[in-house]
Amino acid sequence: MELVDIPNTLCSLAGLEPLETSDGKDLTRLLRGEKDEVHKIGVTEFAWSKSMRKGKYRYVYYPTEMFRDEYPEGFGELYDLEKDP
Questions:
Q1: What is the pLDDT of residue 9?
Q2: How many Å apart are CA 24 and CA 1, to the nearest integer?
Q3: Closest listed residue to residue 8, CA positions, set 36, 35, 29
Q4: Where are the alpha helices (DSSP H) in 5-70?
Q5: Residue 67 belongs to what domain range?
Q6: Do 45 and 85 belong to one domain?
Q7: Cα distance between residue 73 and residue 85, in whole Å
Q8: How far apart are CA 9 and CA 31, in angstroms?
Q9: Cα(64)–Cα(62) distance, integer angstroms
Q10: What is the CATH number of the domain that holds 71?
Q11: Which one is predicted more confidently, 10 or 36?
Q12: Is 58 helix (H, G, I), strand (E, B) or coil?
């Protein structure tokens, strides 16, 4: 689940139509204890990194500003979350 899912989830819980302009999903079924995949890819963005998760893999990219001397073009890391949690 992602922060973008909160508005449409709250709309559903309040009996309102989902927001037309929102990319978020309705998570009420998860709140009821049902299991379901909501997003195939998870994206996280901070000032110091950007990451993407799909299944058991997470790729993290660190922009140039973080390690300018060591990695002037930035760098990334790929994690297998089952082998390296």
A1: 93
A2: 9
A3: 29
A4: 6-13, 28-31
A5: 40-85
A6: yes
A7: 27
A8: 10
A9: 7
A10: 3.30.1120.10
A11: 10
A12: strand
The answer to whether the CB of 69 falls within 8 A of the CB of 51 is no
pLDDT, greater one: 67 or 10: 10
What is the model's pLDDT at position 44? 84
> Which DSSP state fits 67?
S
Question: Which pLDDT score is estimated for 16?
Answer: 93
Q: What tokens were used for 31?
A: 């709140």
User: What are the tokens at 66?
Assistant: 């973080």
Q: What are phi and psi of 21, to 5 degrees?
A: -95, 5
Report how many domains make up the chain.
2
Domain shared by 45 and 58, yes or no: yes
What lies within 8 Å, CB to CB, of 59 at 6+ separation is 51, 52, 53, 76, 77, 78, 79
pLDDT digits 0-9 by tens, 25-76: 898 988 888 887 777 888 888 888 899 999 899 999 988 877 888 888 888 9
Terminal C-alpha separation, the chain:
19
